[in-house]
Every structure is written in structure tokens, then in C-alpha cells.
Amino acid sequence: MRVYNFSAGPAMLPLEALQRAQSELTDWQGSGMSVVEVSHRGKAFVACAAQAELTLRDLLAIPENYRVLFLQGGASAQFAAVPMNLTSPGDTVAYLKTGSWSGKAISAARAQELDVAVIADEAARSYTTVPAPGSYALPPSAAYLHYTPNETIGGVEFDYIPEADGVPLIADMSSTILSQPIDVSRYGVIYAGAQKNMGPSGLCVAIVRDDLLGHARPTTPSVLDFAAMAASDSMLNTPPTFAVYLLGLILEWLEQAGGLASMATRNRAKADALYGAIDASPFYSNPVALNARSRMNIPFTLADASLDGLFLAGAESAGLTNLKGHRSVGGMRASIYNAMPLEGVKALIDFMAEFEARHA
Questions:
Q1: pLDDT by residue (tens digit) across 25-77?
Q2: pTM higher than the cut 0.90
Q3: Among the four 89, 118, 321, 323, which has the fewest Cβ within 10 Å?
Q4: Is residue 192 classed exposed, middle or buried when 0-12, 13-18 and 19+ CB atoms within 10 A define those classes?
Q5: Are residues 342 and 197 in the same domain?
């Protein structure tokens, strides 16, 4: 039985894409083999990867002067790869800290012999806010500005694109990519782990502006070197073939669903419904500032935390899974990525109402 999976990642994926993968698993394109058994350098898989890139370019309207890279190591590898590709030891880099994942990116940069300027840190507000536009100053010598548009753990999302004052803007979009249209031209590098909106874990997609290629430190491993990976069409080593294949299926699903504008409308409706239910109840609460509430990851707490276990067990029995909040935050967290239908959110809201009626 399929459940409504509210996991923050690996996350629920579109059933249509999974069913197609299932139907093709033992005989892909008449080859008599699975896609995970064919050569990544064979014509069929090279065409598969090229089509996935083309569809991604169409959906995101990626300008011609950007390269699309299919990488391994998840977004975490890019925490180190970004400074390796864009800086020399001693350079100044700027970061906005709004939660756990931006904090990890900062730690990785500090290990690269850099002057890391954390120009905004929302710790005083327990990472329930984003810095106001214009409230921070970029060091004049900064090589780039890095931020995390959506913090998966805390459910905090920027409602604007930070101004980078002419230096490359770097974004870890792991939990928001493909959830709405974005202006790629505003960014120097976008990177995202696939396991939220794009596919299974093991794949990271990076979108890199051409002028930022070819500057990697000599010590940069080749698989983390943007230019080396771009020159080999992301096949310098064996890519995560199944993840690339499934990415292509999910991108087709997105096209058939009306593209990113349609997905943005759908995601807003889901988030508004769940936040509305939380705000209307004295039994549930969300700690995030109104202007910083995530559309993808919605944390909430119960008025009596001793009921958390009962809530989770009841939700599981009702087919609503993976609602436990991150250990660093507690409470609950509903991740409602693209593949989560409105019906799943409504089922959660109904369960929340029933639970409140029994235990308030």
C-alpha cells in the first residue's frame, strides 16, 4: 500500500515516474538489460543523460552560458567543491547563516584556508527568520556570497534573492529546486541534492556559469572540478546512472504537469492549507516568522510534547509517515515536495483535527 510520505529526503517521488521505471527495469529500450546494467558510455545512456539535461534546461530556462553538471557526493560535497573551484587560500568569502545546512557549508569553507565572513547569522532568533534585505554588508573583497534559500531542518525559506553586489551568488537549492520558476541568471552557481524534488539520493545537479569554470585549485579532485566535469559531460567517472535516468522521468512528469509555474501554484496551495490548519488551532504551532515560512518543509509542535509519540504512531497507522521532526528541532515536520499531492496534505490536516479533538 502506498502511503503519504512526508520525509525530508529521500523523499516521496511521483508515482507515475516510479511506475514507468518499474515497467522498464528489466528491459530498457529493448536492450534486454536494465538501465543500471548498460554502459554509461553507450549511445543509449549518453542520449538519456543528454535528454535529461535538455529538459532541465527547458524547465528552468537555463541560459546558454551555464553548464549543467551531474555530480556525486550530494550537496555536501559541494560545500567543499565551491570554494575549491572559486577561491585561492586566503581569499575572503561571504555566507548567510540561517540554519543547519548553511552552517555545514560554512564549516566546510573554513577548512579551505579562507577568510570566511558570516555576514548574517540568525542564531539570536533560533534560526526561525531570514536576514532582512540590506541588513548585512558584503566585504568588498569577497569572492562570492553563499546562501541556502530553504533550510530543510528548520523550515525557513528566503522570500527574496540576496543582492551579491557583482560577485557570484552561490545557492544550495537542494530542497527548493524545481518547486517554482527561478531566474538562473541571478546566480553564479546553483547546486542541489536530488533526493527532494529530482530523484533518488546519490545525484547532485550543479548549474555553473561559464566564467566560473577553469579556476579550480590544483589540489581539487577531478570529480569535484567543475571544468573537468563539464569537459567530460559529467562522465569523467561512472555517473549514478539510475539516478540520472529517474531524473529524466521526473522532469518529463513535471513538463506534463504544466511546468514550474503550475508546480508553484500547486505547492503554494498545499503549504497554505497546512499553515492555515496550524494557525487556526491552539493545539499546534509553527515557530517560523511569517515571511520566512518554507513551502517545502513545515515544522510544527503540539501544545503537549508528551503526546508526540501518540501522534506519530496514530499518523503512521493512518498512512502518514515520516512526520517526526529533526532531532535538533523536535516536534513534527511535514515535507511536502512536488510529488506530495494536495490529497496527502488534506489527509494530514484531517488527522491533526481528529487527534486534537481526542487529546486537547
A1: 999 999 999 999 999 999 999 999 999 999 999 999 999 999 999 999 999 99
A2: yes
A3: 89
A4: buried
A5: no
Q: Which domain holds residue 155?
A: 15-256
* Strand locations in the chain (E): 4-5, 66-71, 92-97, 115-121, 142-147, 150-151, 156-157, 169-172, 189-193, 204-209, 284-285, 297-302, 320-321, 332-335
What is the Cα–Cα distance from 161 to 182, expressed in whole angstroms? 10
Q: Is there a domain that residue 317 lies in?
A: yes
Q: Is residue 173 within 8 Å of residue 6, measured between CB atoms?
A: no
- Between CA 249 and CA 225 the distance in angstroms is 27
The separation between the first and the last C-alpha atoms of the chain, rounded to the nearest angstrom, is: 31
Residues classed as catalytic: 101, 172, 196
CB distance 300 to 331 below 8 Å? yes
Q: Residues 207-239: pLDDT tens digits?
A: 999 999 999 999 999 999 999 999 999 999 999
Q: Is the peptide bond between 10 and the residue preceding it cis, with omega within 30 degrees of 0?
A: yes
CA distance 124 to 283: 26
